[in-house]
Amino acid sequence: MSRTAHHRGAKAASASLTVAPISAVEHLAFVRTQRSVSFLQTPAWASVKTEWRSESLGWFDGRQLVGVGLVLHRPVPRLQRFTLAYLPDGPIIDWTGEIDAWLDPLAAYLTAHGAFAIRLGPPVCTNTWSAAQVKEGIADPGSKRLTEMPGQSADPVGARVTSRLRAAGWLPQSPQDGFGVGHPQFRYEIPLAGKTEDDLLKGMNQQWRRNIKKAAKEGVEVTVGTDLKAFHDLYVHTAERDHFTPRPLRYFQTMFAALMAEDPERIKLYLARHRGDLVAATIMVRVGAHAWYSYGASSTDKREVRGSNACQWTMIRDSLAAGCDVYDLRGITPTLDAADPHVGLIQFKVGTGGQAVRYVGEWDLPLRPMVYRVFDLYMRRRGG
């Protein structure tokens, strides 16, 4: 199913669309009319990204609100009056329509309010690859990247959006490995619509099923909790082991406070314990019919009890019970090269069944080319 089906509630564009600021209340009310919206496009996300100035914008057909977007404004160093206007995983518009009719009034509004460029990430996929195809690609020494393989399906809307953005002067920002300064272009997702728990288990590989059974046999208990300090201690341990920079505890406290204030079911903390010891912890976010595995942590001790698999299976089951269409394991890189250190990420996620999905990716539209060049140079010098 096309990702764009999530946005059928966004009315098709007419030639008279206008863009204007809206309240957080209006923004959230529109989000609630949609089958699925990225949590990065909810008004609550503005309260999480405190280092950015934010605003909610609405598209109006006459007096009717037909689309919304959360814009995060990032100032340029030493040119504070200009901003990069960023709409992560957005905006929420009808991407099946004439996108110029939607994006032209956005560009006009943001130019008039000091933006030097717009960066957006259309929530539209272009290709999908089944778990079986990904496994075959990894096993084939001649296959190095997902993009070298024919997909299970290609979305004509994604191809059209890509073509129209390029024709209108937008510049693609997605790096070759799929990870950049923004959000990943390649993701791993488990379709849930029409499935049962048995269906989902059958779709997993033998190792995943074995690990889920092992966790249950060992007595691992997964609960939904509120102890963010316990999660963060384990997350810092995970960061030291796996060599990444952890976010501070206050970031997660802000994230939970903001998202739960918007909807008490929006974000949940899962804690897996074995005989009293915390062995794994994960964070899940849900908006409408879309659930995301957002953060994870695991102990080095007791890895054999498979707490991480137990957390994942509990989140998948809860997403299914909540009526979600998709459980989103977030970013992967498109590599299939067994010698690439990133291949382990896709191997772990492909074990869940599901599919690899390529999105349109993030695109920039320079509104003030001279300032954009200065910003681009600055970002290159600091490594993104």
From TrEMBL:
Gene3D superfamilies: 3.40.630.30
Source domain of life: Bacteria
Keywords: Acyltransferase, Cell shape, Cell wall biogenesis/degradation, Peptidoglycan synthesis, Transferase
GO biological process: cell wall organization; peptidoglycan biosynthetic process; regulation of cell shape
Transmembrane regions: none
InterPro entries for this protein: Acyl_CoA_acyltransferase, FEMABX, PG_Glycine_Bridge_Synth
Entry keyword Transferase: yes
MF-aspect GO terms: aminoacyltransferase activity
Family: Belongs to the FemABX family.
The protein's name in its UniProt record: Vancomycin resistance protein VanK
Protein species of origin: Streptomyces zagrosensis
Taxon lineage: Bacteria, Bacillati, Actinomycetota, Actinomycetes, Kitasatosporales
